[in-house]
From TrEMBL:
SUPFAM superfamilies: Nucleotide-diphospho-sugar transferases. Keywords: Membrane, Transmembrane, Transmembrane helix. The chain crosses the membrane at residues 258-279, 291-312, 360-382, 388-406, 418-438, 444-464, 476-493, 499-516, 528-554. It comes from Microterricola viridarii. Gene3D superfamilies: Spore Coat Polysaccharide Biosynthesis Protein SpsA, Chain A (3.90.550.10). This is Glycosyltransferase, GT2 family.
Length: 664
């Protein structure tokens, strides 16, 4: 006789797809012997639709009940435990797991039951899951794991041309449409409560395999799924759903890793959860997936502090396991196939990036308002400096003509310390280029740069954030935080143009480098920005080189566009590094090419007004008097060249103690 089939349908606010599912259930050529429906706290018309179908039993449950727990409740409340012994002589009782968005084709149940009848060693069978809207498109067909426990779909996102109908034995199947022997379900304890949404069926199938039973696919059984998030992860394209999906998948993987690990490896695995989260978060950032960073940490902490769930799952596994892990080794996805799939995925992402580059939406996402606000803030901060012709103070000195700018970038006498003959420091080239923009008045470029500093920093940060997120609020937040960074404001206030320029250029470098893998022009821009930043703040060189190495490692086919990015910086810095002698005291490398002079406190305080742009050592050379009480101090140091707005100590040579400006 044919085994008895109990269909269990779980629904939660699923009126949108429930009509089609109920109609498909009623149209089965092999009707279930009983139908148990569980309504998990629905607030729409789901309960009425379920009642109208006329199930054998309708169960009302809480809204927070997971799919596996709802199935357990249905089995427990079915009241047919006595039929299990009767069904055993007739082939055993079967459980057919459905959700509100699983619409089986008319012959699906008949094909599934037949697969269990002809193969007594098979305990679980799964259908071919098709797309809800496209009946000829495979959504998922079989599940397996990589060597490190990551879940992988055997077949997914393909047009169904019967090319995979030869598949049979697999490691796992999806929960939607699964047909399982009730005796196996009861002996294994059903789905793991610690896996409410993701990997619950895969984990159950792994335990089924280790208990000595088989898991198989039935290509003749086709079930349409919509991905509402009841039986399986929510397939919604919304950002919040995607982040939740990433977190649940990673959390499920980490939980299974702790459950499957040998006892000796359990503690090392547990200790590695949070450190791995930091590493994976950095990799997410490199892959332009900042929205998944929080999911990585959330999954790591949830798995690390899950209470007694891991010990309970390990006890269930140990109690029912009769085979070793080698029994399922052949069912895991080979490493070569994993690498091939990842390469195809990277190529697909690159193709999409080249074929449909997302718009920045500068106006619609608030970029214009951010720039306007930054401009207003910059003008308000430096309003007393309007009308000035030059800035003096801190590391700022007047510039005497564009010729002097370019003459100083060559090889010659350097007025640093006691003086020497050698190559110019790289920052001299940056100053020469910037000063030439206002060749009629080279000193004016610093004044213009100060007024444009905040808007340029905000715009660069906004564009850099646009590479990572499409949300205008996050872009604006990044712009504001970068614009008002304490180090940036300190560089402006102290009259240190080198770190100020580096701060402005850093987000522009990120913006250009993000597109360098697919554009030679972006690669060239990245190289120039890289060189300028290194010239301004040499101490950033190690960090930039580390990021460059990582970019090269993950660049794939675009590696040639990344290889040459540091070359201009190396060419610019090589003469200075190779020829400049150390100072009279032995010298040491300077973190920034700026002369630090003894600060003189202004009588009105360190932040008297915006006119104190070079706080503690600043002045505005113009006909407009300073807005602050007291004198506007100017710092002139013998170790600084009288022709330069900033005479760098790059990379070494400091004056001896007791010499003029010995704090440099």
């Amino acid at each position: 006789m044919s085994p008895r089939v109990t269909a269990i349908l779980i629904a939660r606010n699923g009126a949108q797809h429930l009509d089609r599912t109920l109609a498909a259930l009623a149209a089965q050529t092999r009707r279930p012997d009983s139908v148990i429906m569980v309504d998990c706290g629905s607030t729409d018309t789901t309960a009425q639709l379920l009642a109208a179908y006329g199930p054998t039993q309708l169960v009302s449950a809480g809204a927070d009940l997971s799919f596996g727990d709802a199935v357990k409740a249905a089995v427990r409340l079915s009241g047919e435990t006595s039929s299990e012994s009767n069904g055993a002589t007739n082939g055993g009782e079967l459980l057919w797991l459905l959700a509100q968005d699983t619409a089986p084709e008319p012959g699906a149940l008949a094909a599934l039951v037949n697969a269990l009848e002809v193969a007594p060693s098979v305990a679980v069978v799964g259908p071919k899951l098709m797309d809800w809207e496209r009946a000829d498109y495979i959504r998922e067909f079989g599940e397996t794991m990589t060597r490190y426990g990551a879940t992988v779909t055997v077949v997914g996102e393909e047009l169904d041309q019967a090319q995979h109908d030869g598949l049979s034995d697999v490691l796992g199947v999806a929960p939607a449409g699964m047909l399982v022997r009730q005796a196996i379900w009861r002996s294994l304890g059903g789905f793991d409560p610690a896996l409410p949404v993701v990997d619950n069926a895969l984990d159950f199938c792994v335990r089924t395999r280790l208990a000595g039973h088989r898991v198989a696919l039935v290509p003749a059984a086709r079930v349409a799924v919509a991905g509402d998030g009841i039986a399986g992860a929510d397939r919604s394209p919304e950002g919040s759903a995607q982040r939740r999906r990433v977190r649940l998948r990673r959390q499920a993987q980490l939980h299974r890793r702790l459950v499957y690990a040998p006892a000796a490896a359990l503690l090392p695995h547990w200790l590695s959860l949070v450190p791995l989260a930091f590493l994976r978060a950095f990799l997410r950032l490199m892959r332009k997936e900042p929205g998944s960073i929080g999911a990585e940490f959330g999954a790591a902490f949830a798995a690390a502090f899950s209470g007694l769930r891991v010990p309970a799952a390990r006890r269930v596994l140990r109690r029912n396991r009769t085979l070793g892990w080698g029994a399922i080794a052949s069912l895991r996805m080979p490493g070569a196939e994993v690498r091939r799939r990842r390469a195809l995925l990277r190529e697909q992402r690159r193709t999409l990036a080249r074929g449909s580059r997302s718009e920045l939406a500068f106006l619609s996402s608030g970029g214009a308002w951010t720039l306007i606000g930054a401009t207003v803030a910059g003008i308000a901060l430096l309003a007393p400096m309007l009308g000035a012709s030059a800035l003096v103070g801190g590391g700022l000195l007047p510039v005497h003509g564009p010729a002097a700018l370019w003459q100083n970038i060559g090889y010659g006498w350097r007025d640093i310390g006691t003086g020497f003959v050698g190559a110019a420091d790289p920052f001299a080239a940056v100053l020469a280029v910037l000063g030439s923009l206002t060749f009629w008045s080279p000193s004016a470029f610093l004044l213009c740069l100060y007024f444009a500093a905040l808007p340029l920093a905000a715009l660069g940060a906004w564009l850099a954030a646009a590479r990572l997120t499409g949300r205008g609020s996050l872009r604006a937040l990044a712009a504001v935080l970068w614009m008002f960074a304490p180090t940036f404001l300190s560089a402006i206030a102290d009259g240190r143009p080198a770190p100020m320029i580096a701060h402005i250029l850093l987000p522009w470098l990120f913006f250009a480098a993000a597109a360098a893998g697919r554009s030679w022009s972006a690669s060239a821009a990245s190289a120039l920005l890289f060189a300028a930043i290194v010239a301004c703040v040499p101490s950033l060189t190690p960090a930039l080189l580390v990021l460059w190495v990582l970019a090269v490692a993950f660049s794939g086919r675009g590696i040639m566009r990344f290889i040459g990015i540091p070359i201009p910086a190396a060419v610019l810095a090589a003469p200075s590094c190779s020829t400049r002698p150390c100072g009279p005291t032995g010298g040491r490398c300077s973190p920034t090419p700026a002369c630090r002079c003894p600060e003189r406190a202004h009588p009105a305080g360190s932040w008297c007004s915006a006119s104190r742009t070079a706080t503690s050592a600043a002045g505005v050379r113009s006909s407009v008097p300073s807005a602050c009480p007291g004198p506007a101090f100017r710092c002139w140091c013998r170790s600084c060249s009288p022709r330069w707005p900033c005479s760098p100590c790059w990379p070494c040579s400091f004056p001896a103690p007791g010499s003029p400006c010995s704090d440099c």
